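tokens incoming
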């Protein structure tokens, strides 16, 4: 399954896809490498319940498993391909 990000102009951006290695939050102290595991597409933002926990922040476009083993959710602007 491959997903494509939408660029700021609303065009399909083939630079991000499921199973692709990326860096999350590049250029910050939180920068981390990982792999995209899910593309939630252009869904309306809404709170998420996951594993019995409620996340008040809206759902993000991409689910990324970091090399540390943690799972993070990020917007397209938070990712760069490795």
């Amino acid at each position: 399954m491959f997903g494509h990000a939408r660029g700021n102009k609303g065009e399909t951006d083939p630079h991000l896809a499921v199973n692709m290695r990326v860096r999350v939050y590049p250029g910050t102290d939180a920068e981390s490498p990982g792999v995209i595991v899910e593309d939630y597409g252009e869904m309306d933002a809404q709170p998420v319940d996951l594993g019995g926990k409620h996340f008040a922040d809206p759902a993000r476009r991409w689910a990324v498993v970091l090399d540390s083993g943690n799972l993070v959710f990020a917007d397209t602007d938070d990712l760069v391909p490795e």
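note: The first strand starts at residue 5 and ends at 6.
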